[in-house]
Amino acid sequence: MSHKAFLRARSPEHKQQRREAILAAARELALRDGVRTVSLGGVAAAVGLVKSNLARYFATREEIFLELAAEEFRGWEAAAVARVAVAPGPESVLDALVETLDERPLFCDLLSHSATTLERNATMEAARAFKLQTAGSFAKISAAVAQARPDLTGDEAGELVAAAAGFAGLLYPAAHPPPVLARLYAEDAAVAALCFEFVPVAKRMLRALAAGLPSLRGEQGDSANGG
User: Fold this and answer.
1) Are 148 and 103 spatial neighbours (Cβ–Cβ below 8 Å)?
2) The pLDDT of residue 221
């Protein structure tokens, strides 16, 4: 990251470059230290800005990370759709969802914070942009899953995709504990079972959900109609 102080961006092109520099700095810090630890001041220092000047580009730190989350959704969408399209079997379709999430640690970290913190301190404009990207990515991945798994309705495919993202937000952080907990798990067999591997657990949970969803058809109108 560059610590060189910037002159004030005046043209639209320069402002866009500044936004991209801020996002790149936040991404690097989050990958290194985790989303939770990255402050607005830390991002400002990384790009050579006074903290108050960041408001010209992002109203809050949460808006920075919501935009990064939108970028990550686009990346997951592209990877998941491509992987699902060549999946050799029904279970491999679901495995593709989990594996493409596991390959994106920053995305999983962002998912774990999106509903609890990031969405709670954003402008309407930033929230709308993030939700539109989320909805669009879910729709495209769900369509790919439904095409590869004709045994599932469109609604069921959508529920599986949403569940995969939910598992990532919930299970990925637990499977990658901070140093103190990692040492605790290594030293204390009584609690070591609480640390698990994300990929096999998430795959098993997603397969169980896929197996059970058809049995619930008729309890929701959309699923009963083939969604």
Assistant:
1) no
2) 54
The pTM of the whole model exceeds 0.85:
yes
CA angle 71, 112, 173 (to 5 degrees): 115
Q: Which two tokens stand for residue 103?
A: 């390959």
218 Ramachandran zone, left/alpha/beta (phi>0; psi -120 to 50): left
Inter-residue contact 58 to 38 (CB < 8 Å) = no
Q: Domains of the chain: which residue ranges?
A: 1-58, 60-220
In CATH, 60-220 is 1.10.357.10? yes
User: Rounded to the nearest 5 degrees, what angle is found at the Cα of 95, between the Cα atoms of 94 and 101?
Assistant: 100
Residue keyed to tokens 């991404």 = 27
In this predicted model, what pLDDT tens digit does every residue of 38-83 receive, in sequence order? 999 999 999 999 988 998 899 899 999 999 999 999 999 999 999 9
> Is-contact 206 93, C-beta < 8 A?
no
Instruction: List the CATH code of the domain at 1-58.
Output: 1.10.10.60
- pLDDT tens for residues 123-161? 899 999 999 999 999 999 999 999 999 999 999 999 999
